[in-house]
Amino acid sequence: MAMTTTQTEKRNQLRRAAQAGFTLIEMLVVITIIGLIMALVAPRVLNYLGESKVKATKIQIASFESALDLYYLDAGQYPSSSQGLQALVQRPSDAEAWNGPYLKGGIVPDDPWGHPYVYRSPGEHGTYDIISYGVDGPQGGPQNEIASWTR
User: Fold this and answer.
1) Which helix (H) or strand (E) holds 115?
2) Is the residue at 107 inside a domain?
3) How many domains does the chain have?
4) What pTM was computed for the model?
């Protein structure tokens, strides 16, 4: 019994369809290779992310220092610890010659990890101290801190 042309064409199409897909082993090999590449690349990417947050913190502290210097030129003194960095965006009640806001946007930003900066005036290391405790926040201790006197 001879096959008709349409039956032969259907069989050829089925063979091609079966050969067109990937086998389970091929898929597992590809997933394993992708996993190995990610295991090598991910730590570097995360390290760059951490480094960029530290750099952004240092830039923000420098911005605060510039704003504090402008405040000092206008008011004749730096804001007290109780006034904090908020004095750069809202006039303190005792500031007669305030010419702010001294920070763009009218808000005091948090550090890149979402924690508020610590401001002390007079500072332990200078006229004032500005501190970010880094990724761990205040409970993390000084090992991750980024401060105005260490830049």
Assistant:
1) none
2) yes
3) 1
4) 0.66
